[in-house]
Amino acid sequence: MASPDQDPETSCNDPAVLETAKSLRDAWAKPGVELPPRGKVEVIGVTGDGPVITVPDTAITLDGRTLRSLELIGGSGDSKSFTLTLNVEKRDGAWYVADLNLGV
Predict the structure, then answer these.
(1) Sign of the CA dihedral 31, 37, 42, 47?
(2) What's the longest Cα–Cα distance across the chain?
(3) What is the CATH code for 8-103?
(4) What does the pLDDT average to over 81-99?
(5) Whole-Å CA distances, 89 to 12, 48, 57, 97
């Protein structure tokens, strides 16, 4: 999570962060899914009052398809233990991804 003195925009433009994001994008590219998404992205059923909110992949939709269903395109085997959540943090009225949590 970013510390209070870190600027999220500066952190997100760090070359190491950009390379990690590109690697994830390339690794998770799915047939029939255009990146960046041109459809409507929504978060459904997530509420909170704190400065950091955890958002599960099942609550994020792109054109009505959950992020979880998109993650599993082409997947094989037992995917029940796979989890992805985002911790989002509100700063200056805007929400930023503060942490991405993968579990298997």
Answers:
(1) positive
(2) 43
(3) 3.10.450
(4) 86
(5) 14, 11, 16, 6
